[in-house]
Amino acid sequence: MTDSEKGAVWMLGVVALTSAAYFVVLALRGDSPVTGKAFALLALMAVPKNSWRYFAGRRFDEREKEIAHKALLMSFRAMWLLVVVSFVFMARVKGMDAALSLPMWKVGEGLCWLGMLSLAVQAATTLVLYRRGSHV
Amino acid sequence: MSNGNATIRNHIRRLRFEHGEMSQDKLGSQAGVTRHTIMALEAGKYFPSLLLAFRIARAFGVGLEQVFEYSEAGDAGFPASSEGESQK
């Protein structure tokens, strides 16, 4: 297993752990600003040694670069899709003239979920491309 | 390269064997890529860039066409045999 694959597996694990922690806190404390603290677990992303390869001067070869590029592109696509779908859904439910009033912590949580989605898609795409080949 | 009617085969596995069972790691370091990329090439899971293709050929001391082989539907021997078949 390459360093990139190990990093992707770790990333998926952290996303799963963070999601689980979020819902546990949500069940215990209800919908409150406290639930957002679960996203602090995302800091675990910086723990594995291979996450420091960018700074350690290790080079990616051309295949690794190609896969990393495709995975990043896929994560942006997923984020964009979620933004559009969320907007269309809210516009249909609330109407185009509705005004939204949200506490800041809700906005922050929304952004964290968006980031989580992006990380998960990036990691999953990385694993798929390493296994099935980057030309598919 | 990934046209449905075109195939690129490579003979990296055979050439490694002919060069005293050269390891994937050694070939990778000579070509400037990881062992995993050599594995992917041999398994037909990756298209090398022209630069990498030349580096691999140079590592074996042979020409590019002795490592990589391009064929299209209608060519003799198409579809390619299993050995070293890279991409369809």
Major pleated sheet of chain A: none
CATH superfamily of chain B: lambda repressor-like DNA-binding domains
Low-confidence stretches of chain A: none
Order of helices and strands of chain A: HHH
What is the CATH class name of chain B? Answer: Mainly Alpha
CATH fold descriptor of chain B: 434 Repressor (Amino-terminal Domain)
Number of separate strands of chain B: 3
- What's the CATH architecture name of chain B? Orthogonal Bundle
Q: Can you tell me the residue ranges of chain B where pLDDT is under 50 for at least 5 consecutive residues?
A: 80-88
Task: Please report which band the strand proportion of chain B falls in: under 5%, 5-15%, 15-25%, 25-35%, 35-45% or over 45%.
Answer: 5-15%
- Regarding quaternary structure, what we see is heterodimer
Distance between the termini of chain A: 20 Å
Helix content of chain B: 40-55%
Biggest interface pair, residues each? A-B, 10 and 18 residues
Order of helices and strands of chain B: EHHHHHEE
- Count all strands of chain A and give the number: 0
User: Would you tell me the overall average pLDDT of chain B?
Assistant: 82
* Whole-angstrom Rg of chain A: 18 Å
Count up the helices of chain B.
5
Indicate the overall shape of chain A: globular
Helix % of chain A is 55-70%
